[in-house]
Amino acid sequence: MVSAPRPRSPGELRRARRPRSHSCWDHLIAAPLWPLHGVNLGTLLRTCDAVGACLAVPRLPHVPEALARGNTLRHRSCVHWVGRDPLSWLEGQKAAGSRVVGVELTDESVRLADLPAARQRTVMLLGHERTGLPADALGLVDVAVEIPMIGTGASLNVAVAGSLVLYRLAGLV
């Protein structure tokens, strides 16, 4: 007779995870640089904590409140402000050797399942929810990734798409 799975207790889960927070800018950075809806930033911040990533956001009026509301863990999260010129920030990351993975449908996009885990400092770039990545930003992308869909929608929202790609880049799926 096979026994039913037993859920792990909160204490068991804590002991199985890293003993301390990750260092900022270690390895993986989620960059929703053209956010439309603040609610998605809070959700993405929670995913960043789950996978050990940092979140880079532009200094726009609605962003601080969205992050404060979305930080349901109530501890300091790894958030960095990129200023009001996201493209300059992205160019600096690229010049410093970061790999840039853009979440966008292009002729050369790789399927999410074929995207390898990040093995170097990686910026996952997310665009505007209606218009996607600006052409100037797309020119800085090392690889574009698409999330296959069989439903009737054309795309996922920024929080969902970013979360799926972050888990893949973190090597957790």
UniProtKB/TrEMBL annotation:
InterPro entries from the UniProt entry: Alpha/beta_knot_MTases, rRNA_Methyltransferase, SpoU_MeTrfase, tRNA_m1G_MTases_N
UniProt superkingdom: Bacteria
Entry keyword set: Methyltransferase, Transferase
The keyword Membrane is assigned to this record: no
Molecular-function annotations in GO: RNA binding; RNA methyltransferase activity
tRNA/rRNA methyltransferase SpoU type domain location: 40-167
One BP term from GO: RNA processing
Name of this chain's protein: TrmH family RNA methyltransferase
